[in-house]
Amino acid sequence: MSDFFERYGRCRHFFLNRYCGINSMLAVNNWQALRNQVRKWDKPVKGSKGKLETVYNFQTKHWVGALREACANIKSMWSNLANRLK
């Protein structure tokens, strides 16, 4: 079970690194659109060694959860930054 959580964390970290930049700020507001975009990729994900199911060795529903959680964290980080700047 701990192996699963380690893989889940690495997958979440992958999404955090991929979408935390200012260019992705609007994209993370709609995580479902990002999910659909990732599902359409036929080739390996840029920055990883293969498809997400293969790289992290779990079902699609698990990387979708990691993506949703990463988007929520990123939105929270941007919101906290905006509050500090006010």
Walk me through what this model shows:
By secondary structure, the protein is mainly α. The protein has one domain. The mean pLDDT is 85. This is Transposase.
Shape: globular
Oligomer: single chain
- Radius of gyration (CA) equals 13 Å
State the low-pLDDT regions, or none: none
What count of helical segments does DSSP give?
Answer: 4
How many separate domains?
1
Backbone structural class: mainly alpha
- DSSP summary, beta strand count: 0
Elements, N to C (H/E): HHHH
Biggest sheet features: none
Helix content: 55-70%
| Span between termini | 43 Å
Q: What value does the average pLDDT take? A: 85
Beta-strand residue fraction: under 5%
What order do the helices and strands come in, and which of them pair?
Elements: H1 2-19, H2 31-40, H3 52-56, H4 60-85
Helix pairs in contact: 1-4, 2-4
What keywords describe this structure?
single chain; 86 residues; mainly alpha; 4 helices; 69% helix
Quick structural gist:
The chain has 86 residues and is mostly helical.
